[in-house]
Amino acid sequence: MSAVLIVAEHKEGMPSKATLRTITFGRDASEMLKHKLHLLVIGHNVEKVAEQLKIYGADCIFLVNDPALETYKAETWAYVTSKVAQQCNAAMICTDAGSTGKDFMPRVSARIGAGMASGVIGFDGECFKREMWAGSVVARIRLHTEIQVATVQSTLFEPATPAGNSSEIEPLHLKIPPARTRFIEFRKTESKRPDLPEANVVISGGRGLRNAENFRMLERLADLFKGAVGATRAAVDAQWVPNDLQVGQTGKFVAPEFYMACGISGAMQHVAGIKNSKIIVAINKDENAPIFRVADFGMVADLFEVVPALIAAIENTIE
Ligand code: FAD
User: Fold this and answer.
1) 240 C-alpha vs ligand 1 centroid, how far in Å?
2) What is the separation of C-alpha 158 from the centre of its chain, rounded to a whole number of angstroms?
3) How many other β-carbons are positioned within 10 Å of the β-carbon of residue 286?
4) Which residues of 201-225 are buried (b: 16+ CB within 10 A; e: fewer)?
5) Strands, E assignment, 206-262
6) Domains and CATH numbers, the chain
7) How many CB atoms lie under 10 A from the CB of residue 174?
8) Average pLDDT per consecutive 10 residues, the chain (319 residues; last block may be shorter)
9) Of the candidates 116, 164, 286, 301, which lies 20 to 30 Å from 128 by C-alpha distance?
């Protein structure tokens, strides 16, 4: 029987929230296609990750646990994924459309000669759905290859809930060829704030912030909500914040309960990355700014008055 195979992402021994969301997508696809649902965990000392995924109703969890997989390399992950996909008769291979998935999945598709759809937002049993032109149109994409490869815009899906049964874990021992790429170092961004795609609250700033120093007040506001700080490309290009904070079409997609846009005009490329937020609040001094078209609550005001007042009000309620 054919299968839908989901490649799990993990960090510090835990499956990512994006993986749980991708499982929701994969479950629906496997039900529509009447295929099995398999998960794949790749890495070294990652048995704990596979254990934690046992409750999500997969038919099988393949575990490729090897010292050669200690550090992530697109080359080796693509090799392992394509081998496992062939062994388990996968008809569809998916993973989250984050930076890792964007990196190794095109190589999987090239290795096995499979068609690929990237950043998909749905599957109707025949075609993938994918937004184009910053979300202005939704394309239906039919792949005619035997195996279909997709990266999934996982923020659109709820994290999978436990399915009751306990999946089998099947360790696989593959001979992993030496990589042509060499791992040099992993520079972790030191932050106590949540990752943008996983945050429940995101406070973002744009060109209206004027400089890097003014982002400190957004950080304070985000910390009061235990949220993340985001930015527009304009703020990133001006080097006020690092580029991993960029939200939007060419940055990160977010789907928090609460998104606050401060001094952001609402260009379509930015809005593409925030429109799955549950509540959007905008502060902009220009009443015609396009951000007000997508905001649930808008304030035509100077952010340098509103944001400090908001911080002071919240601090007062905490004390
Ligand atoms: P602006 O458009 O300059 O807006 C600043 C806003 O701040 C204005 O509306 C102004 O009224 C307001 N303001 C100023 N002072 C104050 C104040 N004191 N109080 C309140 N409001 C104030 N952009 C992204 O964000 N993410 C992307 O991923 C992205 N990808 C792109 C991909 C491509 C291919 C292209 C062409 C562009 C992309 N962009 C992206 C850029 C995008 O088109 C916009 O240029 C950018 O989002 C604008 O950023 P901004 O809103 O900060 O700046």
Assistant:
1) 13
2) 12
3) 12
4) bbbbbbbbbeeeebbebbbbbbebb
5) 228-231, 258-262
6) 3-171 (3.40.50.620), 196-318 (3.40.50.1220)
7) 16
8) 96 93 97 97 97 96 96 96 97 95 97 97 96 87 97 93 90 94 85 90 98 98 97 98 94 94 97 93 98 98 98 90
9) 164
CB of 303 closer than 6 A to ligand 1? Answer: yes
Mutation to probe ligand 1, out of 99, 232, 306 (largest number of atoms < 8 A from CB)? 232
Separation CA 73–CA 103 (nearest Å): 9
In this structure, are residues 147 and 91 in contact, taking their beta carbons and an 8 Å threshold?
A: yes
CA atoms 309, 275, 253, 207: torsion sign:
negative
Q: How many angstroms does the Cα of residue 108 sit away from the middle of ligand 1?
A: 35
Sign for the pseudo-dihedral over CA of 312, 315, 316, 317: positive
Distance (Å, rounded) from C-alpha 302 to C-alpha 158? 35
